[in-house]
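Feature request, filed as a ticket because there's no other form

It would be nice if the structure record came with a short human-readable summary line next to the C-alpha cells. Right now we just get the raw output. Example of a typical job, pasted below so the devs can see what we mean:
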Amino acid sequence: MPLDALTAISGLRVGHWTDRRAATGCTVVLCEVGAVAAVDVRGGAPGTRETDLLRPGNLVERVHAVLLSGGSAFGLDAAAGVMRYLEEEGVGFPTPGGLVPIVVGAVLYDLSVGRSDVRPDAAAGYAACRAAKGGRISQGSVGAGSGATVGKALGMERALKGGIGTVAERVADDVVVGALVAVNCFGEVVDPDSGRILAGPRDEKGGFLSTLDILRRRPASALSGGFTNSTIGVVATNARLSREQAYRLAVMAHAGLARTIRPAHTPVDGDVFFSLATGAAEGPVDLITLGALTARAVERAIVRAVAEARGLADVPSSGEWQR
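Raw output as currently delivered:
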C-alpha cells in the first residue's frame, strides 16, 4: 500500500519533539539535499522565520528544513537547534565563511493550554531533527500539534483538540504531492465534501455548535479577545518546479484550508503554508493538476489531524467528546 504521508516524497524526513505535560511541541521537515521553496501567508496573526528569503528574485532558492512549532513567538527559538543539527551534518548554503543551513518556519499559539512557561527551544528543535525519519510518522496530538486546539468561538472552555496530520496524493506514476498540517484554528473543522462539522465549539449534549451561528449572535470582538491561533503547514512535491511555480502551489494549498476550516484566514489566525519541490521527478508538470491535488491533500490532512488527535490538558478530542 502506498505511503499516505508527506514522507512519500523521497528525500524528506519528518521529526517531532513533544512535551505532553506542558502540551506543546515542534515538528521539523528535513530536506538536506535542498528543495526549491516558497511561502504564502494568509492569516492576520502570523509568526514566521525567513519568509522574506522565499520571495521570488532573492538569492537563495533552496531550503534545508522547515520548522513548525508551538510556543507562539517563543517557539521560533527551536530553529537554532535545527540550524545546529544541519551544521553538524555538513548541510547548508555555501558562503566564504562556511555552510549556512537555510531553515524557514512558522509558529502557532498554544500558550492557553498546558504550561505557558514551557515552549519549544533550541534543544527541542535539535531533538526533533534527531528523531526525523522517513516512512510512517506519528499524527494527532504530537509535535506542533501537541497543544493545538480548534473551535474557539465560545472560548477555550468549549474548544476541542486540534493536531497535526499528513497525507499524500499521486498525480501521475512518478509525481507525488503531500501535505503536513498543524491545525490550531479559531474556527471549526468541517468535512469538505458535505460541510458537516467534524470538530467545533462544544454544545452541552456531546455535539457541536455552528461557529457562523455564534458569530451572528455575538460581536466578533467579544469572541476573539486574546485567542491567537494559526494553522501552519508544509506542502511538498517531487516535481521539478521554479520558485514562481512553487509559490503558486503554496497559494493553492490555502484553498484546501478554506474548504475545511470555517472561517479561515481571520485576524486571529496566522495561517501559513510553505511549499517544497525536490525536483526528483523530471517529467513535465501540469501545475493546474498539481495545485488542485495539493489543495485536496491539505483538506485530507486537516481532517486527519483532528481525527487522530487525543485529549490533552483537559481539552477533549472530537472523538472523545462525541462518544
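Something like this underneath would help us a lot:
Helices lie at 78-88, 122-130, 211-217, 220-224, 243-260, 287-308, 318-321.
DSSP finds seven helices and 16 strands in the chain.
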